[in-house]
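Q: My labmate handed me this sequence with no annotations at all. I'd like to see what the chain might look like in three dimensions before we decide whether it's worth expressing. Could you predict it?
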Amino acid sequence: MHRHTTRLASLTALLLILAACSTGTQSSASPSTPMASDAGTFAWGEPAEAGEADRVIEIAMSDQLRFEPASVEVRVGETVTFRVTNAGAIPHDFTLGDEETQEEHEGEMVAGGMAGMGHGEPNTATLDPGEDADLTWRFTQAGSIRYGCHLTGHYAAGMVGTITIVAS
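A: Here is what I predict for the chain of 168 residues:
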């Protein structure tokens, strides 16, 4: 009987973990959302190939819940590779997006924790301590967007940077 109870408890735990991992992992950048066009690009830009980059901008994430630099400037039509490094001892995420995108991602994180992180989104990277990642982006519209970390409490504590996209 004890062995049966242990197996049942293990199976239940496994099912709960699988359910949690599957919650909120659907792409939020579908053509029906305002932040994405029918081509699957965002209103302010689109993913690009690293080989197309005009330059590399290095951004460090810290456990002081800050990005360095806190702001960058790019031009409309420019393709930039963001080389993001987690210089801290805890995980961080890097999400490119306008205010709506940032709010949506923050809501996913609050609702689903790690399962709501939107892994697989072209504008997001989650990094463990010491890791780095490259996101290459072509900017298509002038304006201002942000990069933010949406691990619990980080964005609210000010872990956000600004990208100013200027007309060429």
